[in-house]
Amino acid sequence: MSMREGSLEAPTRHPVAWREADFYDEDALNRELERVFDICHGCRRCVNLCNAFPTLFDLVDESSTGEVDGVARADYGKVVDQCYLCDVCYMTKCPYVPPHEWNVDFPHLMLRAKAVKFRKGEVRRRDRILSSTDALGRLAAIPVVAQTVNFANRNGAARALLQSVLGVDKRRELPPYSPARFRPHASVGERWPVRDGQRTPGKVAIFATCYVNYNEPGIGHDLVAVLAHNELPTVLAEQEACCGMPKLELGDLEGVARLKERNIPLLDRLAGEGYALLAPVPSCALMFKQELPLLFPEDEAVRRVAEAMFDPFEYFMLRHRDGLLKTDFRRELGKVAYHIPCHGRVQNVGQKTREVLQLVPGTQLTTVERCAGHDGTWGVKTEYFEQSMKIGRPVFRQMAQAQPAYISSDCPIAGRHIQQGIRDAGTDLGAERAHPLTLLRMAYGLEEGGR
């Protein structure tokens, strides 16, 4: 296929037809994989994004024909397994996304292939367990259990056993489980009158996320403290299930649908009552903003929730533009190396975290806009650990070169991954890992939150 110019029109995206029988037809899937792989082979613009594209191009270059038609269809899965649905190729690189006539949506084609694989039962028990974040969190965050799990995660013999049984790489530093969850201990309430903003609702409902609930509740407390300081009435969603991103990455679309049915009715009611919905983990915000509307395009409640969902710093910056965000900062942050995670970049809201942190006097911000290579559960798996560290090395290097006092990323898992990568490279200068919400709380001079 010859190269052509990409579309100059604004990109759009088609709904995912996952409930149609043809979606799971393997012959139809393989024909579409071959078509898109041929376009990618002729372009190669995304070669430096992740391992999916180098894997594809190596298969092509080493084939008998030097073209996609020389690659065995049985090897297509090698490309699919390398894609962790970060969406960066679609959002930032590919010139052939719709409305271009070639209609390339590489991530959603990979999602289709993963869904076919899942429906065929070709998924490891390990992957099913790791994608069940609610079940893991409820068990592991029981106080005594949490302490036991955290000890085991730091114990070499226990980690070797975990690697042999489940394939979780023993070298990966895993986030701890907190014996004090966010939800039972969060203190929020409507303590101030609502003051409507011009662009944003003047009251907030927090979708806590599995990670904040079970792993780092301090991030949630930091968000609540910042909202309280800005006199924003705040409530917690009465309950929540996993947003569905881990199930999506596994190709378990029916699992995504079940979680959607648990989350959307409550969030839709809050949106209807005029609340801005805030999710403090980028992947969760993206799930509600983009993936669920494309999976359920006919569902008006999903659409309403998507319109009401904000990344916290997106919300803060809109408040600032309306003159409603307090800037009475009491503490300088000094040197901060800040990483923009992929699921933050592809929300198409700009670098809002950077913009807010730059409002803090005495803050020197180094911004790194590149994939760190962890992605949810992908980087913990034995077969992908080395690759995740290789993808992240340019990020580790750039963050360390800034000689920061703080290492920060909106994605707390990416922040841990970056800290490990810097330390493993021997360039650790003692920088503290702190979520951007933690930094903002510190800048306001508020009582210290958790980590």
From TrEMBL:
Keywords: 4Fe-4S, Iron, Iron-sulfur, Metal-binding, Repeat. Residues 204-289, 336-412 form the Cysteine-rich domain. InterPro entries: Cys_rich_dom (IPR004017). It holds the Pfam family CCG. The keyword 4Fe-4S applies. This is Fe-S oxidoreductase. It comes from Thauera sedimentorum. The lineage of its organism: Bacteria, Pseudomonadati, Pseudomonadota, Betaproteobacteria, Rhodocyclales.
